[in-house]
Structure formats: structure tokens, C-alpha cells
Amino acid sequence: QLQASGGGLVQPGGSLRLSCTTPGFSFVDYAIGWLRQAPGKERERISCISSDGKNTIYSDSIRGRFTVSRGNTKKMVYLQMNNLNPEDTAVYYCATGFHYHLACSSREYDYWGPGTQVTVSS
What we know:
Blueprint: E1 3-5, E2 8-10, E3 16-21, E4 32-37, E5 44-49, E6 56-58, E7 66-70, E8 77-81, E9 90-96, E10 111-112, E11 116-120
Parallel strand pairs: 2-11
Antiparallel strand pairs: 1-3, 3-8, 4-5, 4-9, 5-6, 7-8, 9-10, 9-11
């Protein structure tokens, strides 16, 4: 299971950094994706980073504001979120799957956790 953390309440224009850990299992050889789901909306893929951290993907909705990265040991994945706006309010998840060995994929994710709530409001 993957565990996302670091969410919270932030004012518009503020920043948060989310973390993704994989307690009990090593996903160092797998790409990790970030998704989010706002109330009443479908789950949205927003970013992905390859296992070596060299290749990243961003959705149009967050490109230029969010940055995905991996820690030095590749066990941690981060999502730095800047210039947040109320439309970014959602539960954020990190995920991976069978088709994500080494590289990102358009295939469905197989593993994720409970997510972390991000609320952007004044």
C-alpha cells in the first residue's frame, strides 16, 4: 500500500508538499503517480515520475505550479504544490501498478492508499 501525507488547509496562493511512502514494500523500481479527486468529480491523474526520477509527467491543470520528485534513496516521492487555488481542493493519492515498472504508463494503477486531504480556502 502507498501512503500519501502532508495535506492540510492552505490559503489561495499558498504551498504544500505532499509525501508518498511505501511502508512494508519497496517500490524503488516503479514509477509513482499522483492523482486527486475533488468532491463530485472523477479521479484525475495529475503527475507521474519514473523510477529513476529522470522523467516526469504533468497534467495541464497543474503544470508549472506542481513539481514531482523522488528522494535520494528513491523510496520517497514528493509533490511540491505552489500557487494553490480553490480548484486544487481534493483528496490526493499516490499510486503505482504492474505496468509502472521503471516508467510511467497510461494503464490503470493497481496500488494506492487512503490519500490525503488538501483544502485551499481563505
